[in-house]
């Protein structure tokens, strides 16, 4: 794929709200992405009232997938990120392995939730299903 084609593809998707792939009512806006030197993507994610994400994993073809989510705005109730084995977690910051750890978001009630999400894939063997290192 040529650089011009890649750039056109990026600008056709960037900074536009798109429906989330889980089909559960959240929206995502691509901010920045690259394939080199380290494949990554960054999104602004909007969870309107009533949206939720059921438990799932996000498999990758090769390597180890990491994601850092920063909650920018919380709803009055709900919208909680659930992950049994995060690498690091505070009230607003979550670092986890979406390919190795089942995760979800509870139903948003009373307002909306906004999250900045940065994801990257490290090369090497995939160890999905194994607990991430502490």
Task: Provide an overview of this structure.
- The structure is a single chain.
- This protein has 134 residues and is mostly beta strands.
- It has one domain: Jelly Rolls.
- It contains 1 helix and 12 strands.
- It has a 7-stranded antiparallel sheet with strand order 1-2-3-12-5-9-8, with no helix packed on it. Strands 4-10-7 form a 3-stranded antiparallel sheet, with no helix packed on it. Strands 6-11 form a two-stranded antiparallel sheet.
- The longest helix is centred in the N-terminal third of the chain and has 11 residues, at 3-13.
- It is globular, with a radius of gyration of 15 Å.
- Mean pLDDT is 89; it is low at 129-134.
Q: What's the layout of helices and strands?
A:
Blueprint (H helix, E strand, L loop, with lengths): L2 H11 L3 E3 L7 E8 L5 E8 L5 E4 L7 E10 L3 E2 L2 E3 L4 E2 L3 E4 L6 E3 L2 E2 L3 E10 L12
Antiparallel strand pairs: 1-2, 2-3, 3-12, 4-10, 5-9, 5-12, 6-11, 7-10, 8-9
By CATH's scheme, which homologous superfamily applies? Jelly Rolls
How would you name the oligomeric state of the polypeptide chains in this document? single chain
Quickly name the level 1 CATH class: Mainly Beta
* Helix-and-strand structural type: mainly beta
| Element order: H for helix, E for strand | HEEEEEEEEEEEE
Taken together, the total number of domains comes to 1
The low-confidence parts are: 129-134
Number of helix segments? Answer: 1
Return the CATH topology. Jelly Rolls
Give a quick set of tags describing it.
134 residues; mainly beta; Jelly Rolls; seven-stranded antiparallel beta sheet; three-stranded antiparallel beta sheet; 1 helix; globular; Oxoglu/Fe-dep_dioxygenase_dom
């Amino acid at each position: 794929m040529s650089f011009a084609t890649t750039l056109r593809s990026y600008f056709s998707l960037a900074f536009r709200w798109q429906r989330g792939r889980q089909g559960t009512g959240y929206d995502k806006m691509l901010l920045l992405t690259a394939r080199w030197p380290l494949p990554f993507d960054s999104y602004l994610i909007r969870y309107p009232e009533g949206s939720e994400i059921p438990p799932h994993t996000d498999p990758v073809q090769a390597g180890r997938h990491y994601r850092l989510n920063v909650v920018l705005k919380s709803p009055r109730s709900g919208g909680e990120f659930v992950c049994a084995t995060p690498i690091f977690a505070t009230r607003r910051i979550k670092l986890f392995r979406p390919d190795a750890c089942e995760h979800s978001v509870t139903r948003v009630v009373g307002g909306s939730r906004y999250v900045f999400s940065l994801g990257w894939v490290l090369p090497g063997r995939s160890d999905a299903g194994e607990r991430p290192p502490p």
